[in-house]
Each structure stands twice: as C-alpha cells, then as structure tokens.
C-alpha cells in the first residue's frame, strides 16, 4: 500500500512541506526495492528519517570535520584521487559516501554519479539510492526479522542516534499498522 503524505508527516513531523516532495519518490523507490510491507517500510522510514534529519538533509553537512578530512585517501571508500573526500561526501537519504559507493550506486541506478554526484541530492535519486543501498545490504531481511539494532549497525557502523531511530521506528510501526 502506498505511503501517503499524511502518514509520512505523522512519522516525520519535522519534514514539513518536504514530505509532499518525497512521498512519490519514496513510494517508487520502496516498490522498486521490495520495501513492501509495513515492517520493512517502518524500519526503512525510521532509518532514513534519522539519517536525513527528517528529510532536511540530502547532503552531508561539510565542515570539514576531522572525520570528514579522513575521507581523503580512504581506499575502503574508493577515494583514491585528490578531492574525492569532499566530492563524494555523503548524499541521499541514507548518505551514500565515497567514490566506490557512488560508482556502485550509479551503475545500479543508471546514473552518471562519478561525473554528477549532486544528482543524489534530488528527491527522486536521494530516495532511490537509499532504497537500493538498503536492499543491497540485506536490510529487508533484517527488518523482517525485527533486527532493528543490526540495521542501525549496518547503516551507521555503530548505534549513533539510536534513541531517535527507535522513536521514529515506534511511530512508523504505529502509523503503518
């Protein structure tokens, strides 16, 4: 069942008018990547809600911080060329980061992301890249198993923001029930 703008605003009340922009893109992305049950949708919306500041951010806030400076030269991210760290900063609703992840996402989505990384800032591609990443990392199956903490670890590498993620998940489960 497609997500409505009213439902999204109940889950992400701070999204405001951005909810109306993202609902069609989220519905297409969730359908394409089989985020197609209330359990999967609740977990997905909670995680992207946290990662994007309730749809406020589709691009990483750049300082650069010490951590962001560390993106330069990170072979695990595929950042092998000078400037790759900033050029391939986190973008999209789940913050795709690094040249190699942009390459993989671009190939999967049919987008020239290595040449135009800012495409992931558009609602359609911000949502689609997040759903692609979600499905590509087995998160539908973790959602089906109720393993929300493990989903956070896969996305975040730890449990940063877990209280907020859990609050959003609780709301999403209630709204989508």
TrEMBL record:
<feature type="domain" description="Glycoside hydrolase family 19 catalytic">
    <location>
        <begin position="42"/>
        <end position="135"/>
    </location>
</feature>
<dbReference type="GO" id="GO:0004568">
    <property type="term" value="F:chitinase activity"/>
</dbReference>
<dbReference type="InterPro" id="IPR023346">
    <property type="entry name" value="Lysozyme-like_dom_sf"/>
</dbReference>
<dbReference type="GO" id="GO:0006032">
    <property type="term" value="P:chitin catabolic process"/>
</dbReference>
<dbReference type="GO" id="GO:0016998">
    <property type="term" value="P:cell wall macromolecule catabolic process"/>
</dbReference>
<dbReference type="Pfam" id="PF00182">
    <property type="entry name" value="Glyco_hydro_19"/>
</dbReference>
<dbReference type="InterPro" id="IPR052354">
    <property type="entry name" value="Cell_Wall_Dynamics_Protein"/>
</dbReference>
<dbReference type="InterPro" id="IPR000726">
    <property type="entry name" value="Glyco_hydro_19_cat"/>
</dbReference>
<protein>
    <submittedName>
        <fullName>Chitinase</fullName>
    </submittedName>
</protein>
């Amino acid at each position: 069942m497609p997500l409505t703008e009213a439902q999204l605003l109940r889950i992400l009340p701070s999204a405001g008018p951005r909810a109306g922009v993202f609902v069609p893109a989220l519905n297409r992305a969730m359908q394409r990547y089989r985020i197609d049950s209330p359990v999967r949708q609740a977990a997905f919306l909670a995680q992207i809600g946290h990662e994007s500041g309730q749809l406020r951010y589709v691009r990483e806030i750049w300082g650069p911080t010490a951590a962001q400076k560390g993106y330069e030269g990170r072979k695990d991210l595929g950042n092998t060329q000078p400037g790759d760290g900033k050029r391939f900063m986190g973008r999209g609703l789940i913050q795709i980061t690094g040249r190699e992840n942009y390459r993989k996402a671009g190939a999967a989505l049919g987008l020239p992301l290595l040449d135009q990384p800012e495409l992931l800032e558009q609602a359609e591609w911000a949502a689609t890249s997040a759903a692609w990443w979600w499905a590509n990392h087995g998160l539908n199956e973790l959602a089906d198993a109720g393993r929300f903490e493990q989903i956070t670890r896969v996305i975040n590498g730890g449990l940063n923001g877990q209280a907020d993620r859990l609050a959003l998940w609780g709301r999403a489960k209630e709204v989508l029930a």
